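The pair is quoted verbatim underneath.

:::
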Amino acid sequence: MPLRLLLRFSFSVVVAALFLPSLCLSAEKEDGFVPRRQQGIPGPPLSPQQAIQKMEVPEGFSVELVAAEPDLLNPVAMTFDEKGRIWVTESFEYPRHEPGPGRDRIKVLEDTDQDGAIDKVTIFAEGLNIPSGIAVGHGGVWVANAPDILFLQDTDGDLKADKQEVIVTGFGRTDTHELPNSLTWGPDGYLYGLNGVFNYSHVKHRDKDYVFTCALFRIDPRTRDFELFCEGTSNPWGVAFDPNGQAFISACVIDHLWHLTESGYYHRQGGPYPPHTWKIESIVKHKHQMAAYCGIEYFDSDAYPEEYRDCLYMGNIHGGCINVDVLQRDGSTYFAKPRPDFLTANDVWHMPVDQKTGPDGCLYVLDWYDRYHCYQDAMARPGDVDRLKGRLYRVRYEETPRANTFDLAQESDEQLIARLHSGNRFYREMAQRVLAERASDAAIQPLEALVMDTSAPFKTRMHALWSLIGARQLSDEFSIQLLSDEEPQLRRWAIRYQGIRASNNPDVALLIQKLTSDAHPDVRLEVAILAPQVDYLPTIATLLEVLRSSPNDKLIPHIVWQNLHPQLEKQTPDYLALMTQAPYESDATTLSLLPRATDRILATPGVSVEHVATLVKLLASDPGQKEQLAICLQRITQQAQSRELTGERLAQLKTELAESLSMILKQGNEHPGYYDAANLALAWNDPQAMEIVPQVFASSQMPPARRIAALDSLLTTGHSQANQLVRQYFEDRRNDQAMIGQVIQTLGKTDSDVVPKLLLPRLDSLSSQNRPKAIEVLLQRPSWAILLLTQIETGKLDKETLSINQLQRLVTTSSEDVGRKVNDIYGSIRSGRDPSRTLIVAQMRRLVSSRQGDPHRGIEVYNKLCGQCHKLHGKGQEVGPDITVNGRGNLEQLLSNVFDPSLVIGKDYQAVNVLTVDGRVLSGLLVEDSDSRVVLKMQGGKQETIARDDVDVMKTSDTSLMPEGIEKQLKSEEIVDLFAYLTLTQPPEDPTAELISGASPIDPAQIVLPQQTENLLANAQVSTNVDSFEAGKRGQPRDLIYLPQAKKFLANSQWHEIGVGGGSELGVLNESKAVTLSATWKEPVSVNFITLSGSYPNQPQPDTAWRIEAKIDGVWQTLERGVGGWYDSGRYVWGWPGAVSIPMEGFRVRIFSPNEKTPVRSIHFRGEEGFSWFVGNLPPEVNVIRQ
């Protein structure tokens, strides 16, 4: 049965009958919305020819069109096959979350007359659902089609898929711009692919469970085995391999370029790390334009001049360009430096999603071509995603010849081996893949000979080797020969192959073990990766020797640790036996891992603490390792303080360490570990430590970090002087504010009633940075929370002291008494997000758009509020996302994130609430969740570690850790200043700083209602109480309502006004007697934009009070109020096209006296053509700014 029938419907029928009409409407809409990460309105799309004319490429290069709409629509990924045909996936379903059959497809594009343009298009497969990656090989087509990786075959030669196999399933669809992607053949014959940080996946494959998010995975095409190659980064999209076979990826939001190594764990954009992870960072210090990357190609073709070869070309979606980085070696890893952009589109619709080298040696660039770069825009307005366009370009140097017709699958082994000499990487890789798939015995000898031919180019030799490796034809005899070859990359790949085939040859293992001290770092790195994979290689000894031989390498220690620490669960005695003898006992590089090893051993159930004591004694015996000893003691102390280390284990540790600690303490503070030894010894009430530690905290001459560590020890051990010392500290007015904040946060470690006695009377006098910290601490203990709530109940503290997040936490996590107290004071506490936050966002938009702020003062506001959890331009704490590149795509996004933080929240940024067995309540972001402990990152960046045995309840909140109600903590001036800072792309002192999109001041005089907008007031019941004022009354309510669609007012009128004129004195009108204009609807209407004109211009008006209200859920709520300003003159604008709409049952305006003395004299509402009185729900593409 054809695949089209298996997937239940034919794409062509859907397009013809249902889909294309809606696509046409989408494409033709007026474009007035400013999308995220764009500086202005995108404008209309360009034709392919117009787009090419605007592109900039280096001298000598030109851009050619290979394919475009209608042959190519919404392209996502591409690849070439052995005939030079181009396979492209198209997605009309994006950004759909639901799995199942869809409307997406795979096309095969052919240039049959070799003129450089596609002239034949075949639909290979249909019914797919966001196919985000594609590769051709091993008799079929591999497709990432979450939740599956599919293998599609054409069994009858008609270029139509008629057989489907699910290779792997379990990939998530929680974030459909982070789906499994970039299927790419690796040099080792595996199929590699990527997955994103917010796409939660659970692959069950052959009795193994893989739970992961951001990762580089691989599949063996022969065995169908699936495994994770490494983990980390953000939303990676694009895999490339250099001539050494090293993997590189491009990624979004965080740094853009990463060198990925097997078994490594890399920096994550968000979410917890596995226990004991030592993360690896990127290989760049620079940034290009913005931070959204899609696709990467290691370009190596003789069709371009040499200066454009051997570098990485990366698609920059926000920049609309191809960025270039060049690699430099840095030990076993790399460091990348920027080069000038290779292509600049000068068209914001240009979205380079994939880049590949073609058979003619040119770079091919696949262009999604859409106005919306960001997933958030596509999710909010999927109907506005342009689904009628797509382009494929070729960047050609001078008159580079077109590729001739070829079919590598039909070539002989000899012909394919000859192609390994090609100057175009395309042919080398394609010939290598075909040879590997063919796995011909006849090709083994000539390939081996080519590998060993030192006169052949290095790249040719490597492809010959990879052909053998991909075919799984590398014999032990040849491997042994390679392991002693002078070329380090041959040695390296001979080592790697042993892991691929799970070698158990002791002769090979013996040779590999000798390479632990190889002169080349790449070889040593590969040995470290292999160490735990083969039986005849002593894992720990191998890893330690590699580490000892790599004293200055940036990457190898991380890889060694990632492969070493799992061994410590069962092989700690073996590790200690090696570490306590030469050469490791005195080697600084191997000893540097002892603090991590100490933490790992202590976290392993059933492992004797005697082993930890051995490590401490080892460091203590080496005068050159005092710094490492201090760190080791800190790790032990932290576990004692968090109660991971208690009871008999702690008592045994005291016995084992008594002599070492005594020796350190006798040396005095000249020893770097002196204070750490004292903190640890205090855990078992050592007499000397009982004197030292209180003195440390009490001394203002000590560094703050040392004083806080001392306080931690005093509180967790219940030292008799702790309370008195804390009292004395708070009585000293000379204390630094930053230090005060750290002391406050540390007070949660005790349950003493001295804490509320100290903090409650000081709440109003604490700085704006420290008051929230004090409140958080007071909420951690039920008895303290009761005291705080009592202060609120009696009116000593305002009810706004506690945010809704805190109240929700108290009700759901704390004691029943606390919950009842909360309900007595606040009533029933809602769960989840407050829907009225939409109204607050609109109010704040009015505020920040109508006033000029000072970004320098805004930095001060940021530091005291936002900087407790966020980094911006490198400053602040890293608790929530780094907002340098997150959450500030445009003003609408920024307003929503600040004032409605739980509207859109990633799982990794949901607050986690922990209730301990002793009643302490903690809330933060989850950093670690292991069998031994839970680690939370709290406000201000402080981490709290809770022993697993001390966790009573752990709940993930439905709301963000960022609290609602920030507008209640700040004055209006502070909010305006804060947004003056947040809306800049760079710090205010940077001359290149610009406003983010949508943040430019809005001049109401330039607003005009386009003809396509509908005025909801036309269908409302409109009324006024003007009739109750007899003198000079004029007009009817419907006279004011302008209909943009008809370009006229709703009712004919001479003046289009309503009011009481003639200089009538109406006297003092309080709000209950206000002049009103009201509109009500039978059913709620969605509203996001309101415009009102002011008073009649010829009437002398006093300053008049006004209130604008909306009826929401049966209650009149204030949108805005004021005195003078709007009503007395000018225009009023509320909301904005594309903003989140609010369901309103009614709308009204009230005019009244500003006080008890000022009379109101003649009231007029006036109409204004093209503007007034308007209530509507405008989509983002509506442009209301006069052109």
Summary: The longest strand covers residues 1075-1087. Confidence is low (pLDDT under 50) at residues 1-33.
